[in-house]
Amino acid sequence: MPAHDPAHDGALFAAARRAVEELRRVEPVTGPLAERFRAAGHDLYLVGGSVRDALLGRLSGDLDFTTDARPEEIERLVRPLGPVWTTGAEFGTIGVLVREPGGPEGEGTEHRCEITTYRSDVYDPSTRKPDVSFGTTLDGDLVRRDFAVNAMAVPLPLDVAAPLVDPFGGLDDLAAGVLRTPGPPERSFDDDPLRMLRAARFAAQLGFAVDPAAVAAIREMTGRLSIVSAERIRDELSKLILSPRPRLGLEILVGTGLAAYVLPELARLRETVDEHRRHKDVYAHTLTVLEQAIALETEGPDLVLRLAALLHDIGKPDTKRIDGGKVSFHHHEVVGAKLTRARLTALRYPKDVVEDVTELVALHLRFHGYSAGEWTDAAVRRYVRDAGHLLPRLHALTRSDCTTRNAAKARALAAAYDALERRIGELAEAEELQALRPALDGNEIMTALGVPPGPVVGKAWKHLLELRIEQGPMSREEALDALRAWAREQGLDPD
User: What is the C-alpha to C-alpha distance for residues 153 and 65, in angstroms, rounded to an integer?
Assistant: First the structure.
């Protein structure tokens, strides 16, 4: 029998105390809910992630509950408390928006509360969709949940003397920082293969380790992920990437083989030694770039920047060449952009995300032409024009892509990029660089040339834009002279 560990008991006591403090904070919401259910003869428990987060001292405004009441009864009980939604009624879930009392009328913290009937689902092994079956016991509901840290409940109204129901050791796991399934992991992942991705996601969100038995089961069962829709995989991947520690989750994906069904391009990077041989492989370099990009975020987690950092070098395996013992990856940014577009499209990311990440991957090497020597004003203008609204993200990605251990080289690259940003700032102040466009618009071009709308107008506009980039700002008269000269070269009569 293991020796008693007072420190362990202390950690559990501290977690329980934090939970009570957090739960008291939301009693203005949970209290009225609990009273209505108790008066109707039903149980009500705070459950799942809400309990986990309360134990961690970070309860959010979204609260999850479970009850023995059926969906139609839940709806009847909560409708007087606020706006109700029933989109999950088929699965036993009714939602209600409850506002805390107090404060000026119309103000006060709002809580999205979702109350779900006890469930004891049976899963179809070919689709991961459960045959929804309502249960009769709390333990039966908790055992079907993904991890023990998410399989705890708090009876309501809150009883400080008995604040927690924990049949599967979730509190111990929370104190130890471990993700473990309530039952055998093989059965849990077979029922719902998406739970394997959730293991990686929760590891990234919470900084927890995955139980070795669960890791072994994932390695054996990665193929089960093939029945999960691209949209579900995308959503879990995005949550992982936007988490505080995405590297932890990504290492689980690659180490267990799950990446083959999510981001196979990432796993392939382990095969490729980078051209400077200063990293174990391009995979390790990529994870470092991701972490460095996160450190440069100024307005919270940025999915586009993080995806670009993660995918910026995925063209290297297909462009690797060895010449005279030297490794090169010429045009890997072009190949990488194509692979990025294909992967994000397959994962059903929105079009704007696909386009922005693809463009950042395509542009991520452009700076290195500047670091090798002084750019002309025209080159700086073209850099800004090509980056467009992505320029701040391109700045962050380019700076993050420096992972050399040579301190002198790192300082030189940083100084070169500082100089480029100063040049951009100086030109922007003098020329309205962010609104880079010709001195004439389409209507003025048509009037000057006497032509109707059509391809000629577009070609003329692009010609004037190129002159603007090469020569800097032009007056309207200078632009008209340049337009007439171009028209004559095209066989048009500008007069």
Answer: 9
